[in-house]
Design a protein that fits this description.
- The protein has 114 residues and is an alpha+beta fold.
- The chain is built from six helices and three strands; from the N terminus they run αααβααββα.
- The protein is globular and about 45 Å long.
- The protein starts with a helix and ends in a 5-residue tail after the last helix.
């Protein structure tokens, strides 16, 4: 294994960060990182909704469970993002309406939030 491959292997999963999301969530780094991760999973899921537990979100982002839940709470009112508890046992369902979410991003880029 060469050094580059070893470094990539040791670094683990990549978490992409979209800077405009920080503005969208009112300045919170953890919420912006969580939103970036959720949007990436939405793309990875073929543009369909998906389930993820709070523990899975926390583990993926190296956050505590409380940090992940606090970040998730800041995302609940973002236009175009659906966050709902479903199933037994209950898990969080995430979905994105791309047109509505794009409107929220454009508003954030103009200086507003959500």
């Amino acid at each position: 294994m060469n050094d580059t491959t070893k470094l990539d292997s040791l670094s683990g999963t990549r978490v992409y960060y979209y800077p405009v999301y920080r503005r969208l969530v009112g300045g919170s780094w953890p919420a912006a990182i969580a939103l970036s991760h959720i949007v990436d999973w939405w793309y990875y899921s073929g543009g369909r909704g998906f389930f993820m537990t709070d523990s899975e979100l926390a583990d993926a982002l190296y956050m505590t469970l409380n940090e992940a839940r606090t970040a998730k709470a800041r995302l609940r009112h973002i236009q175009g993002l659906t966050i709902a508890r479903k199933g037994q046992p209950a898990r969080t369902f995430y979905d994105l309406d791309p047109a509505e979410f794009a409107k929220a991003i454009m508003r954030a880029m103009r200086g507003g939030t959500r």
